[in-house]
Fold this protein.
Amino acid sequence: MPLINVSYAAQVSESQKAELIAELTKTYTRVMGTQESSVWVMLNEVPRADWGVGGQSLAHMDVQKSQPEPTVKVRQATSDDMARLAEIEAECFPAAEAASLESLSARFNVFGDHFWVLEADGEIVSFINGMVTDSPVIFDELFEDANAHTRYGAYQSIFGINTLPDYRGRGYAATLINKLIEQARDEKRTGVILTCKEELIGYYSQFGFELDGVSDSTHGGARWHDMTLHF
């Protein structure tokens, strides 16, 4: 006995449910050549708070859509931003991978012109940073030693792109990635390099990054992949 199970998060009237059951039954019997009396249909109305997409519930997404779009501003970071950036870093990365306030401050003191932040209604909600190097790949020592920055190096690196969870899905990360790419082009770099986890390879490919293979980096005990955007 076939069972057609349909889950939905929309509010459906009794008449719509009856029509849906009838139409699903008719379609199944026509395609499969069975009797209508043998077809079961089960409708499951799921609360929007219990249905998640991309890490967020539909109810949360509804609230976001109902709010006016914030005023967005991209600017270079300042030393006064470091505490806020450390808070965002800690929320976006596991503890073993997140850069500390001390580490971010050390980086900023050496290559602060390669720190960009994005503000939404005056509040920093996303940022990107990375040193310049002659190495075509990122290795772990670069994360640990800000002085490895090479001002006139060939490659702009991306150490991290962080967006607070409540502000994801709005293209903020893409805005900052494109900003750093633009800066690298203006500074006549050879390209941009990064390491990422396997599930993000497709995302970075949208910007033109090409997969170079599994990285030698074991930063934070994770498995990373090298990617390069060639100019």
About this structure: The domain at 3-66 is CATH 3.30.429.10 (Macrophage Migration Inhibitory Factor). The mean pLDDT is 95. The CA atoms of residues 110 and 147 lie 7 Å apart.
